[in-house]
Amino acid sequence: MKILAVTACTAGIAHTYIVAEKIQKAAEELGHQCKVETQGSAGVQNELTAADIKDADVIIFSHDIAIRGTDRFEGKRIVDVPISLAMKQPKSLIATIEKKLAAK
Amino acid sequence: MDLSSILNPAIIDLSVEGTTKDEVLRNLAQVLLRNGYIDDVEQFVSDIYEREAEGPTGMGEGISIPHGKSTAAKKIGIAIGRTVNPIRWESSMEDDGWQESTLVFLFCVFVDTEFASNHLMLLSQLAGKLGNEARLARLHQCQTPDEIIAAILAEDEELESVDSKEEIMDLDLDF
Questions:
Q1: Is A1 within 8 Å of A66 (Cβ atoms)?
Q2: What class has domain B3-158?
Q3: Where are the domains of chain B?
Q4: Test mutation, A10, A17, A47, A97, chain B, max B CBs within 10 A
């Protein structure tokens, strides 16, 4: 799968970036391509482009505060979860998405 | 830009005294004060607690990452402490909401972040490195501040691969 994700936490200092790394690692470990945009105190990093979004099978929003620029993802399949879920169970998150998509 | 502005051996203390989270936070804040990162321990700790109230900062593996923006902060950095005693800490990883921590990464960030984009960029990169389980395992083995810094800066490929402890299970996701 081609997985995209956007992360954003309340302070924008730690969890945004730690969870981005966890999602990236979990996706790669399970054999998927992945790109994660972070929206934190350092601004928007690794921004998802129109080309990224066009090719994506699924987009994960992992956040505690509103994600900016959601209009970019109109018509795409969005999985919306709190930061804490991706913090605790990143592999289960990816594996569950994979399973549900395969069943669709 | 020099990473030592954020990772400074002078603000790494591998024998932090205390038996409670509050004592450990205050002792680490003193380290920041002595090194010119903050100018007011009470204000800084109170700002850290403000963020703590919004959600747990225990991230599993015996590691906690208290953080927050503070008006008392003068420089951006991360104080790192290994505690002499295991410290009970609110956790997003445990079902009962608590973990025991022995490594504390105390992020020191000032409020007016507009003038610090380079530092914040570095800080975000360093935070991301804590999302790697192999790195966390290595951090627990470090004996000196310089080893801690080396473990944080190590490339992923330099780290021994550690099997993720997460057991894969079906989540209740609606999409």
A1: no
A2: alpha beta
A3: 3-158
A4: A17
